[in-house]
Structure formats: C-alpha cells, structure tokens
Amino acid sequence: MRIRKAAAMLAATSAAVVGLSVATAGTASAAVGGGGCRTTGYAPEPGDMMIDPCVYGPLATWSDNRVYPVVTTYQNGFNSGDPTAVLPCAQLLSTDGHGHTTGMVHDFGCAPQWESTGDTEWDASQQGNYFSAQPGTYVVASGFWATINGHYGYYGGAESAVITVWNA
C-alpha cells in the first residue's frame, strides 16, 4: 500500500512539474536559461573591494536572446591606499560548458560614470547595453578601473554563473 501511495504522489509531483514546464515554455525567456550571480558570493579583489558579476537573459518586454550584465561592488573595510571610486566594467565570455572560458564574445564596456566605493550596482540594460547571443554557454567577467596604492589599473576578473542560449 505504501508503494502505491508513493507512486501516486510521485506521479502527481511529476505532472505538476511537467505542467509548470509547459506553462513557462512559451515565455520570451524560453531561449535563455540559467544565469544569475556568482554561486560563491562576492569575489575579493585588491583594495578591499568585493565584486559580484551577474548575467541575465531577456527582460519581460523582450522576445529574443539578449543578455546583459549587472555588476555590484562594495568596499569591505578601508585601508590607506584603497580606492575612493571605481568604474565597473563587464565582458561576455563563451564557455565550453565544463567551466572553462573559450574567448570574449562581447565587451559591454564600463558604467557611464565612476561610482563611490560604497555598495554600487551597474545594470547595463538601463543604458540599453545588451548583446544578442548565439546559441551557446556564457559567463560575464567583470572588474573595475581604480587607483589602488597609487597604481591606476584594471582590477578583477570575477565570473558570473553560466547562462545558456538555446536558439537565436
């Protein structure tokens, strides 16, 4: 009797999941899956900076395969020589699907203005900055321009979660 109840419960759960999949398959985001932010949280970078790159697929109003980055930075403490402002940037990299990047596909550039080192977020889609990706798997790599200990340069290279584009 318990086996029959378990089988019935499994069938009901499976039907609910299949129903959910079918119900969402027709949405604009059906061509893109995954994405989001780093699964391990903020990445520590020089100058006591922390960075969290994210990648997202189509917005509700889009009906295609556009992807865009959102980069969040904040300063974890402050020491002499740390930056007082940063300019977050992002690039879209292709991956082999096994955790290795295979090349840069698109340079999203940088935020339109320097940001204080407090908690900041650059959403590239707010400036119409997105990329129509071909089928494949991708990550966003991000960093920032800053002066740290008197040295101006590009710091970072943290990567987002993987996003997959199935059709273009």
UniProtKB/TrEMBL annotation:
The keyword Signal applies. Residues 1-30 form the signal peptide. It comes from Streptacidiphilus jiangxiensis. Keywords: Signal. This is Peptidase inhibitor family I36.
